[in-house]
Amino acid sequence: MSPLRAKAPRSREKRLDTLGAWFGKVSVASKEFAGDEIAQRIRTFAQSSNDDLLYALRILSGIRNSVTIIHGPRGCAAAGLYHTAIGSNTRWIVTDLDERDTIMGADIKLRKSILALYHRYHPSVVFIVGNPVIAINNDDIQSVVEELHEELELPIVPVYVTGFSSQNAVSGYDTALHSLLKYLSGNTSTATKNETLNLLSVAEHPLDRKEAVDLLDIFGHELIIIPDDSAIDVFKSAVAAKASILLSPDAPEYLGVILQEKYDVPLIDVSRPVGVEGTGRWLKSIGAFLGKENVANELHTRKAAETARQIGGFSLKGLKVYISLSSANAFSVLDLVEELGGEVTGLTITHLDRLHIRQLDELTIRTPSLQIHVSDGQAFEEISILRKLLPDLYLGDSTHLGQVARLGIPVVSLESLAFVGYSGVVRLVRRIKSALANGSYELSLAKVNSPYQEAWFRRSHNWHIKQEVK
């Protein structure tokens, strides 16, 4: 049976044994994932975390000429504010359900919302995003979708985010991609194949997408970028492509797997193109699939030489670096740090699953005692680790960089930095140079008291991480 027949995909825990809580040596993680079953962990205390609604909205906000209805109480719309803050052009509303709506049903309110948005914006597609309240009271979204789809002759896509089917927010990507494929890719699974290539890009920086497109231009194939900044017709085109290329092995993985299993579009096995050698491996893997490995080798040789000239022999030799990023970014930036001569002393990632087995096995060979901390939003756990390690440089997102800087550690935010490809190496090196040369800000912040009491720090780093009891 096609997985698209279901309302939503299987959770990442069931599909990939995804862990959202873990702390230990990389060699232990590698050994555990070598087995058939993974012991799930839970946190007895969680400081904060993202949820699957936010991750789903990240994808939907990138679809051109769309409108999104967050179907739920007013508080659920707080997730939509994220896209306003980052300048997204997405248009969204919330149906603002009250107690009566949750008991008696809110199909009339949802219907009015769709009609109002349709007549105001004339969109190409309407997304209806559920939430925990809708999942609990089982509000009948599907009937409204089918009725208005016929009446308006407009694609209306329900996205069944529940908030509790998975402990890992990255599942929100899967949920959104599942709905996009189910409702927008068409009914045929035997589309006539052509020579186009799918570039699977989810929540990527625009400059990172541009870098990937520029590099892939060497192969001479038309590219279909999906789903970032795409129109709805690309989902029908994607099922006829020659192959799919991942820009990240994590976020768009579900999209690539379904295109391969249901529509026979091969998924090229590639790692993230970060760093000179990492980008070279990415290009060579694609070149090998297309029978153009020599073309990829020539491009890599030329670009590697250009990059070496631009960074001018920059080295991280003798410096200890801590990395705190989304999983695919963290593992790829780790390789780049080692490529530049630095030593990675620890790693905080958002989740860990079977997609990372290759990285775990490779790290076990190189640095078996490297500590991996799996968390999404647990700042106090990470600060406790950093107090012990005291690295020379911290590379992460902007979630709690201020608290890290209070430890006197130079910090580099990668959240808004494009660091994919050869150009990305140059940008990141420049940012690191600036951080290492201007440490007065961190030294000043180090005089400010930590928001956490010493009792927190006297506990082990994995104090709140326990194995789940079934």
Question: Care to describe what's here?
Answer:
By secondary structure, the protein is of the alpha/beta class. 44% of the residues lie in helices and 14% in strands. It has three domains: 52-162 and 166-184, Nitrogenase molybdenum iron protein domain (Rossmann fold, 3-Layer(aba) Sandwich), CATH 3.40.50.1980; 197-297, Rossmann fold, CATH 3.40.50.1980; 314-467, Nitrogenase molybdenum iron protein domain (Rossmann fold). The chain has helices at residues 12-16, 26-33, 52-60, 81-85, 99-104, 107-121, 132-137, 141-152, 171-184, 206-216, 234-238, 253-263, 276-290, 293-311, 327-339, 357-366, 379-389, 401-405, 421-437, 440-445, 454-457; strands spanning 22-25, 41-43, 66-70, 91-94, 125-129, 156-159, 197-201, 223-227, 243-246, 267-268, 320-325, 343-349, 371-374, 393-396, 411-413, 465-467. It has a six-stranded mixed beta sheet, sandwiched between helices. Strands 4-3-5-6 form a four-stranded parallel beta sheet, with helices on both faces. α16 (357-366) links the parallel β12 (343-349) and β13. α3 packs across α9 (171-184) and α9 (171-184) packs parallel to α12. The longest helix has 19 residues, at 293-311. The two termini are 29 Å apart. The mean pLDDT is 89.
